[in-house]
Amino acid sequence: KIGNWSHQDQEKREILGTKYEARSTEIKSSTIHHAHFDINETIMAESGGGARQRAVRRSTNDAAADSIQPSVVPISSRSTNRQLPRRLERGGRRGGGYGGGTRLAFAIVSLIIMTCLLMLPTRTRDQIEIDAGGGRISPMHLRRQRHLDEDDVNKGDNVTPTGGEEKQLKAIEHPDQKFDDTDDLVDDGGDEREKSVAGNDVAKLRDDESDADDIDVQMNKEEETEWKKMAINLEKDGNGEEEENVEEELAFPMEFVPIHDVHLAEVSAGKIDGKNSVNESEMIDMRNLVQTLPFENVDGGAWKQGWNVQPKQGKLQVFVVPHSHNDPGWIKTFDQYFQTQTKNILTCVYNALLKDPRRKFIWAEIVYFDWWWKEQSESVHEQMRILIKEKRFEFVTGGWVMPDEANSDIYALEVQFDEGRQWIEERFGSEVLPKYGWSIDPFGYSPTIAYLSKKRGMEGLLIQRVHYAVKKELAKRKHLEFMWRQVWDEEGEWDILTHLMPFYSYDVPHTCGPDPSICCQFDFARLHNRHNGCPWRKPPREITPSNVAERAHLLIDQYRKKANLYRSNVVLIPVGDDFRYQSQLETENQFRNYQAIFDYVNANMKDVSIQFGTLSEYFEAVKGKFTPPILKGSFFTYSDINEDYWSGYFTSRPYDKALSRRLESVLYAASRMGATNEEMREDRRTLGLYQHHDGSKFKYIFKHLMTFDACMTVIIFFCD
């Protein structure tokens, strides 16, 4: 039912699409990529970008759209794919009635088909609908697809289906009524009559509906009544009276309805961990928000993508959180980064923490820490255990890497989660397993990560790369901290408290407050023009007794302005950037100068307390201070400025992505045959590394390909 098809193909696909929607429940249980998923986890599992790829392709011209492959690989095709190796082997050993040339041609064609099937996105139609339902379509694409007049936009209506699709939906919803050529409802006794084309379509649909074995599109009465009730949002007017905002009635269950067909009804929620109650009246549905936002980029002054923020008055509690973002593969390879930068970073931070008990640090990428740990002496191990026990060095998230959230499958995400967190537990105990997630660099965010985090006992998340227009809108409402709820979760069982950073980036110029020209002056790693200095031509200065008062008041003013974007009086200030704290000089400059400011503020500003802190300290302090709103949906597609959408990674490097899928299937098959995680540890960690959000340079990955091939051969032979 989607895409710019030719008129003839459109009619066929509409009817087939309707049939597919009605039978999607049966298909879902038969075409899941990994056999171990249950139905609920399948619905939860949508972090992949397959649906986005198709969404982007839908906006192409008719000729290009006609070449798009079906969204679902038929069961029979996938069965053929699994049987191909056996058939080829039998053809080679036993003949099979064909001549040698025929067998060779058959083998070549079969291998080509098998390769194509292997590289197809293996998502069922209902999963794709959930992707779209989660808001995972570019806002630009949504605006191009919108067919609403100005009145509909002002009413806040959803984008409605068009053409044959709308006729089908209305015919199903109103079997006793007719439609004219503008698709408006007409009473049976009215003067207007259906046009011939519309009449034929409706008559054809009604004939098809009567044959339940051919197209089973009628819902039973109970399901239809329940769904129609969910399509009604009750809004409170100014006098506290309830008004019914009746959305268009829908014919399909929620999880099978595309983004442009549905407003999700608000649902209730209870206490969250006994500390934060959820504000039911404040529901943010990203699927609705991205349709109504103008996505303008108005110059906001010092905060280019915002406005002139005023300082928040009253008491302020500030946690300054030192961090270093280490990509396991980006411009350099994973190996090169560790040897030239990351190894030094961890050593410098370790030495700096030992010098002053007030200093703290957080770390996310366990894949790097594991390598560094292996090279350290037992005395270093003991000292690091003390730092971790005292919560001065804190792991955040605990994943093997900071994964991409758009293209990764849920199996691979769980593997990288579990490998990192198991590594921590084996060496430091379960009591230090991270309770809070730190995801500052993936390009857009999926609610699947929120679900997986909650599933592992985590209580909060921090995210950063969200479309600048969405950030601005949420900041205006003071909704930058919210309970992230799954679209399928009606009770709020999987809600997780989420903090969204408000500004352009996670570097120091964009984390202390709305004015980067001021914040950059407090990035002491840039002293003496290091790291290319500050582009605003206002360099940082060493903190001395003569300037500490002026510097402290300037910085606290930024902190107060940032605090005004949130509902509590607790402020989180990250201090770091990519591969920071590389030298002992840089590390000391940051810690020493900030501590001088802290000492002055705590002694002279009675309404401000400030210290080095960790992510868990911030979340523990902010809990219970306010009632967060509920947010549903995802944060795709990401744009950091103008209309620069970070969407190329949905379609780039298909061969490399296929390698990841191949390893996933081999590991899962091996686990089903009795292999333990310990026996597969090296390959599981390789798969985890590959989920890194920047994509890893392939020197480390490719050395395992012979292992993949050998394992696949063993599995095929065993199954044969």
Summarize the structure.
With 720 residues, this protein is an alpha/beta fold.
Description:
The protein is α/β, with parallel strands linked by helices and 720 residues long. Helix content is 45%, strand content 10%. The strands form 6 sheets. It has a 6-stranded mixed beta sheet, sandwiched between helices. The chain is globular, with a radius of gyration of 28 Å. The two termini are 40 Å apart.
Low-confidence stretches: 1-98, 121-173, 178-221, 227-275, 697-708, 710-720
Average pLDDT confidence is: 73
Principal-axis shape: globular
- What is the helix tally? 28
Class from secondary-structure proportions: alpha/beta
Largest sheet: spatial strand order: 7-17-13-14-12-11
The helix content, as a percent range, equals 40-55%
- Roughly how many Å is the radius of gyration? 28 Å
Q: Approximately what portion of the residues adopt beta-strand conformation?
A: 5-15%
β-strand number:
17
How far is it from the N-terminal to the C-terminal residue, by CA?
40 Å
Biggest β-sheet, characterized? 6 strands, mixed
Secondary structure: elements and pairs:
Layout: H1 7-22, H2 24-28, H3 39-44, H4 50-58, H5 62-65, H6 75-94, H7 100-119, H8 125-133, H9 139-145, H10 150-155, H11 163-173, E1 178-179, E2 185-186, H12 196-210, H13 221-230, E3 232-236, E4 242-246, E5 271-272, E6 276-277, E7 283-285, H14 286-292, E8 316-325, H15 334-355, E9 361-363, H16 366-374, H17 378-389, E10 393-395, H18 410-428, E11 436-439, H19 447-455, E12 460-463, H20 468-477, E13 481-485, E14 496-500, H21 516-519, H22 548-563, E15 570-578, H23 584-604, E16 608-612, H24 615-622, E17 630-632, H25 654-672, H26 681-690, H27 699-702, H28 705-719
Parallel strand pairs: 7-17, 8-15, 8-16, 9-10, 11-12, 12-14, 13-17
Antiparallel strand pairs: 1-2, 3-4, 5-6, 13-14
Helix pairs in contact: 4-8, 6-7, 11-12, 15-16, 15-23, 18-26, 22-23, 25-26, 25-28
